[in-house]
Amino acid sequence: MDEITYNNFLRAFRFLSDYSERDWLEDAACKGMDTNLFFPDKPSIKDRKRIAEICGACPVQSQCRDYGEHERYGFWGGVGTRTRIRERNTDKMPSTIDG
Length: 99
What we know:
By secondary structure, this protein is mostly helical. It is built from four helices and no strands. The mean pLDDT is 80.
């Protein structure tokens, strides 16, 4: 397992380790998908478009976005790391997709 795959695995494991408090995950559009898509080191335009499609149609997008508000890595509810960092100072979550 290369370092990138291992780091993505650790991020996903940390998130799922307390799964009982996130029962909204049962309805997530990304349930069962490869987590590497949502935790890219450098998201491509193709990745961002795919994430936008998945998250945009997800019935629990707002719960996911709220959960990920203070996460350091990954896309949560379609919102990427740079947007979350930028928005933390304004105490509001964005509604756009970016890395």
